[in-house]
Write a structure and sequence with these properties.
This protein has helices at residues 2-8, 28-60, 64-105, 107-141, 151-180, 198-226, 231-246, 250-269, 295-327, 332-351, 354-378, 380-386, 388-395, 399-418, 448-451, 480-483, 557-578, and strands at residues 432-433, 440-441, 468-473, 484-491, 495-500, 512-515, 521-525, 537-541, 549-552. By secondary structure, the protein is α+β, with helices and mostly antiparallel strands. The strands form two sheets. The protein has a seven-stranded antiparallel beta sheet. It is flat and about 140 Å long.
Length: 582
């Protein structure tokens, strides 16, 4: 009996088993394994326990020695019972957990619902097919149901059936095409806008440039053909075109050239290397993609792309505004020429036969393209005097130019109203008069020559009539009020003038006048090296200053630098020509 008990005895004690609350959560597989194994062990153990309970009763009668052994067996049996109770409780607990998990997952119910939906779909499809079949079967079977009707009624029904069959045949044959003409409301699709990205902006500008490249190459080749860049090519093209125009084959020639171009493009797409151009193409170096850019590099990249986009949009706006102003009679003397030309073309198209009209247009286009344009390009003065399309296009104003003209006209009217009192009256206060053209120059503080104590002949150049907004950084001064001054910079024929915005109307102490001949060095300057770009300042050194003066925070720095440097070199050249010794 002891051997049997040793077989079923647990090696651990009651304390070694975890409580139900402290037992860890187990997976479904672990639960299933324990559920399968533990019931079998429990049944054996119960049978052995029963045998163990029965056998001690016989052993008690054997003697006092066997009584102590029976007591030990009883304690072992009690321990086994305790372990069995714990195992049963664990089994019950795990079964409850498994049931809860199954209820939560609800997989079986979902599978059942899915099968039900499939069955419903199949039933509905069968019903629809049956209904369609019944309709098709009923439509031809409706005709023979009236044999007892009169002959007239039978003939009418036969006609109706014939009409129905004919309509059905027409619908089956052309119904698909009729459905295409059904009116439907247009769907409004809203495109999602992408956020601003320096990389995407740069890539879009490159794509635009690549897309315009075929057009620019074509226009460059046409220009080279008309300017006789290659004499042999232009001569051959001129002879062929004039022969075609003389025989009236201009339109077939252009169609043949289009077909030839598409054929060449097809061969290029298949891998053939075909390159033909009058002007040799300049291959632009491909910039490697820049992945890791600093903040300053990204900022500079955005500035460069924005500048290119600004210039491109400005040119496109100028073209569109000129075309609009041409048709809106903004410049009547220019639109009048177009008006007369359209009337002549209309009358010619009404009176002349189309063959003769096409011959005249073709011959004139060839002579204009190959000979007249070449002469005008070689002689600019002739072009400015006799080339009517060039004159019209160059003299057409844009909206910005019209606005500037209106502002200048308004200023002249105000000046004329102020000086209407007497013919010999001087220029109004705050205005200086140009003796040659009767133009007045002024600043916000008064007359230009009075503000800077200059002769009346000194006036701003046409490039800087309104001046450039900037700040003067005088590094020789220590006090903050004298170190940086905000104001406007002007350049005249002999002087560089800075008008401080903090100077009073009658005082010129804070203004700065620099003679161009006294400048020893002029350079572009970057005030803050931390900021991206090449800077927005100009440094000017003179003998009277220990450190160069800097005109910073200038929006149009490059334009101002070019104007100042050009005038400076002009004055220096004139001075050296007058006094070679200096």
């Amino acid at each position: 009996m002891l051997k049997r008990l040793d077989r079923i005895r647990f090696r651990g004690r009651r304390d070694d088993f975890l409580d139900l609350a402290e037992s860890p959560n187990t997976s479904d597989t672990e639960c299933s394994e324990e559920v399968v194994i533990k019931p079998r062990t429990s049944v054996r153990e119960t049978e052995e326990v029963r045998e163990a309970e029965v056998e001690p009763q016989g052993d008690v009668q054997a003697g006092p020695g066997s009584f102590s052994a029976a007591l030990d067996d009883r304690t072992d049996l009690n321990e086994v019972k305790g372990h069995l109770e714990i195992a049963l409780l664990e089994k019950h607990y795990l079964q409850e957990e498994l049931r809860k998990l199954k209820e939560e997952s609800n997989v079986d119910s979902l599978k059942q619902e899915l099968e039900k939906e499939r069955c419903r779909r199949i039933e509905l499809e069968q019903k629809i097919n049956d209904a369609l079949r019944s309709r098709l079967e009923d439509s031809p079977s409706q005709t023979p149901k009236a044999p007892s009707a009169p002959s007239a009624a039978g003939s009418d029904k036969q006609k109706e059936t014939l009409v129905d069959t004919l309509l059905k045949w027409l619908y089956d044959r052309f119904g698909v095409y009729i459905e295409d003409f059904r009116f439907q409301p247009e769907e409004m699709t809203v495109e999602t806008e992408e956020p601003l990205s320096a990389k995407r902006l740069t890539e879009n500008m490159r794509r635009l440039k690549r897309g315009f490249r075929p057009v620019t190459n074509f226009m460059r080749n046409l220009s080279a053909l008309s300017s006789w860049y290659s004499i042999y090519t232009s001569a051959i093209a001129f002879i062929v075109y004039m022969y075609v125009a003389w025989n009236g084959w201009v339109i077939p020639m252009f169609l043949f050239l289009a077909i030839l171009r598409l054929s060449l493009n097809y061969l290029i797409a298949k891998g053939w290397r075909i390159q033909w151009s009058i002007v040799p193409e300049v291959s632009e170096p491909m910039e490697p993609p820049k992945e890791d850019l600093t903040v300053s590099e990204k900022f500079q990249l955005v500035l460069d792309v924005a500048q290119k986009a600004q210039n491109l949009f400005g040119r496109m706006a100028n073209i569109l505004e000129k075309i609009k102003n041409l048709f809106m009679w903004v410049q009547p003397e220019l639109t009048q020429k177009l008006y007369v030309g359209l009337w002549l073309a209309f009358i010619s198209s009404c009176l002349l036969p189309y063959k003769l009209l096409g011959f005249i247009i073709g011959v004139y286009a060839g002579i204009k393209f190959f000979i007249i344009d070449f002469i005008f390009k070689s002689c600019p003065k002739l072009r400015q005097r006799y080339d009517t399309p060039f004159i019209i296009w160059t003299n057409l104003p844009t909206d910005l130019q019209l606005k500037e003209r209106s502002n200048t006209m308004l200023g002249r009217r105000v000046i004329a109203a102020g000086g209407r009192g007497s013919l010999t009256a001087a220029a109004p206060v705050g205005v200086s008069r140009d003796e040659d053209g009767g133009r007045y120059y002024s600043t916000k503080r008064g007359a230009f020559h009075e503000v800077f104590n200059l002769p009346e002949s000194e006036r701003p150049l046409t490039v800087c009539e309104t001046g450039w907004r900037c700040c003067l950084i005088n590094r020789d001064r220590k006090t903050p009020t004298d170190y940086i001054r905000n104001g406007v910079l002007y350049v005249t024929e002999n002087y560089l003038c800075f008008e401080s915005s903090s100077s009073r109307s009658g005082s010129s102490k804070r203004n700065k006048v620099i003679k161009l001949l006294e400048i020893t060095d002029i350079q572009k300057y970057k005030v803050l090296s931390v900021l991206p770009g090449s800077g927005m300042g100009i440094s000017i050194a003179t003998p009277s200053t220990q450190k160069p003066m800097v005109f910073g925070a200038m929006m149009h720095r490059d334009e101002a630098f070019e104007a100042i440097y050009t005038q400076y070199m002009k004055i220096v050249t004139m001075a050296t020509a007058i006094n070679p010794e200096t």
